[in-house]
Amino acid sequence: MINEVLHSRLIAFVMGSWSVYCGSIGAYDGATFILLFYGLMLLLNHLDQKKSTRSAKTNAQK
Fold first, then answer.
1. In angstroms, rounded to a whole number, what is the distance separating the alpha carbons of residues 45 and 62?
2. Could you give the CA distance from residue 6 to residue 38 in angstroms, rounded to a whole number?
3. Could you give the angle at which helices 9-25 and 28-61 cross, rounded to 10 degrees?
4. Nearest Cα to 7, choosing from 40, 37, 42, 33?
5. What's the CA gap between 52 and 12, in Å, rounded?
């Protein structure tokens, strides 16, 4: 579920629009926060997929 949300075009559009809005009014902390939050979610998703792939390989070797 989280993978579909992270790679959604709608989410990317909303985040891009929010970043542009925050940048245009001079509230760079809002734009930075949303981009860092999305990056953190991507990183955690990547680490979770890596861990699940590793455990699947371990189970297959037993």
1. 26
2. 8
3. 150
4. 42
5. 26
Establish how many alpha carbons lie within 13 A of residue 13's alpha carbon, considering only the half-sphere containing its beta carbon. 3
Residue among 13, 29, 8, 19 at smallest CA distance from 41: 8
Say if CB 18 and CB 30 are below 8 A apart. Answer: yes
Q: Which helix (H) or strand (E) holds 60?
A: helix 28-61
Answer whether 0.90 is exceeded by the pTM: no
pLDDT in tens, the chain (62 residues): 566 666 678 888 888 888 888 889 988 888 888 888 888 888 887 787 777 666 555 555 55
